[in-house]
């Protein structure tokens, strides 16, 4: 047992594909690998916040399946987005009622993009909900989230795998990317072209950080799921779980990070 090890887990963005992170966290937990700090972008920030609050991966999956996320969105009368995320804060408030990074059970950092300055901004203290919303604010689709004087959008624009907040703090870093794309022989339409191009650009900044990870997990085949394909939530969870179980079996050295077997039961 090496209970003194500090383990960091960085979770990428990827829309609904981020549900696969929950399956990965479940499998890691069952092997006794539990993070002492988490960082996340976009969907990874949301999954990370709920996990750091103390919900188990299966509890978070149940919340996602039973929640009509889209009813919390409102049209935006704006040139910078077609939807407003403001009312999504009401949804997060149900599960993160303290709205405070300091009250999470596990430390969390989320990444967002300052669209005016062209810089990544990391949030790990103070109010919690608005930084999570900012981290998952898809440019063009949602109006930017304003925190102070900063206009913030999806952290994945500049950093879709925020390992930097874990460097120098954690002994080992596990990076998990939920955006691996299969080869595509036929670009069917403009939507397919744009979505694929955006994910490729985000993956580029993920892979540039791969070398900073001691272990890098990337469940294959998630590219076949749409960014908002919430009906496939259980499939995505299972994909992350199955892949991580296989990864652990094929890379037994990761078990050196385990602190206790069967830490996460359900």
Which range best describes the helical content: under 10%, 10-25%, 25-40%, 40-55%, 55-70% or over 70%?
25-40%
- SSE pattern: EHEHHEEHEEHEEEEHEH
Secondary-structure-based class equals alpha/beta
The geometry reads as globular
Strand content: 15-25%
Structure description:
The protein has 266 residues and is α/β, with parallel strands linked by helices. The strands form 2 sheets. Strands 1, 2, 5, 6, 8, 9, 10 and 11 form an 8-stranded mixed sheet that branches. It has a 3-stranded mixed sheet with strand order 3-4-7, with no helix packed on it. It has 7 helices and 11 strands. The two termini are 22 Å apart. The longest helix is centred in the last third of the chain and has 18 residues, at 190-207. α1 runs antiparallel to α3 (57-66) and α1 packs across α7. β10 (172-176), α6 and β11 (215-217) form a beta-alpha-beta unit.
Structural descriptors:
alpha/beta, 3-stranded mixed sheet
Task: Spell out the blueprint of helices and strands.
Elements: E1 7-11, H1 19-30, E2 37-41, H2 43-53, H3 57-66, E3 74-75, E4 81-84, H4 88-95, E5 108-114, E6 119-123, H5 129-135, E7 140-142, E8 145-147, E9 150-154, E10 172-176, H6 190-207, E11 215-217, H7 233-250
Parallel strand pairs: 1-2, 1-10, 2-5, 4-7, 10-11
Antiparallel strand pairs: 3-4, 5-6, 5-9, 8-9
Short description:
The protein has 266 residues and is α/β, with parallel strands linked by helices. The protein is built from seven helices and eleven strands.
